[in-house]
Design goal:
Length: 201
């Protein structure tokens, strides 16, 4: 079975990507599991540019199929921030709890109507024969306080109206059906189904 190497060191992302792509006829592994640890120069202006930068950087050292995820949170009240800067938001060496609290602080006292936000996920895929990106998003609301322990990153402050729960309160299998990442990976599967003749899933 061919390997698909994920260009990420983020264990939350890797766990989700592996769970969502588990039926592909590819062995999905992280770059660290394969002994790679390249530096990514995320100088792109969009999620998809950054996803491509990561995939191309890894593809230079991996002789095979690679996939990269660039994702983040766009908050309407903050004019789309933190966007592509989501992971560096609030500075280097800042805990996730502090990042979540900073967002809650910036939106303190703001009515629910104006707390709208979305998670965006761009996935870049590179194999010997093809390079492409897909992008998806999910709409939500920034909660007034962190809720739930599941998932990773900003999950405790991202409230999904349809389920009346934050991502961190949702069971893993539900998040992995509805999330920005799940939807982008479904699009990827759709493309791969045409290219490799496999089920779209
Ligand atoms: P990247 O690794 O440069 O793509 O940064 C992604 C940022 O968005 C990190 O801070 C992640 O914690 C956050 N992020 C992306 N996807 C999710 C998610 O599904 N839940 C919570 N945070 C996420």
């Amino acid at each position: 079975m061919d390997k698909l190497v994920i260009a990420s060191g983020n264990t939350g992302k890797i766990t989700e990507i592996k769970a969502i792509l588990n039926e592909l006829p590819l062995k999905v592994v992280s770059m660290k599991e394969e002994g790679y640890n390249p530096e990514f120069d995320e100088i792109g202006a969009t999620f998809s540019e950054n996803a491509l930068i990561k995939a191309k950087t890894l593809n230079k050292v991996v002789n095979g199929i690679v996939l990269a995820d660039d994702s983040g949170l766009e908050i309407d009240f903050l004019n789309g921030a933190p966007g592509i800067f989501t992971s560096r938001f609030a500075g280097e060496n800042v805990s996730q709890e502090e990042k979540n609290n900073k967002i809650i602080y910036l939106l303190k006292g703001i009515d629910k109507r104006y707390r709208t936000a979305r998670f965006v996920c761009s996935i870049a895929f590179i194999s010997n024969s093809i390079t492409f990106t897909v992008e998806e998003s999910i709409e939500g609301i920034i909660s007034e306080e962190p809720m739930g322990d599941a998932g990773f990153g900003y999950d405790p402050i991202f409230f999904v109206p349809e389920y009346q729960k934050t991502f961190a309160e949702l069971p893993e299998d539900i998040k992995n059906k509805i999330s920005h990442r799940a939807k982008a990976l479904a699009k990827l599967r759709q493309k791969l189904s045409i290219i490799y003749g496999i089920k779209p899933g």
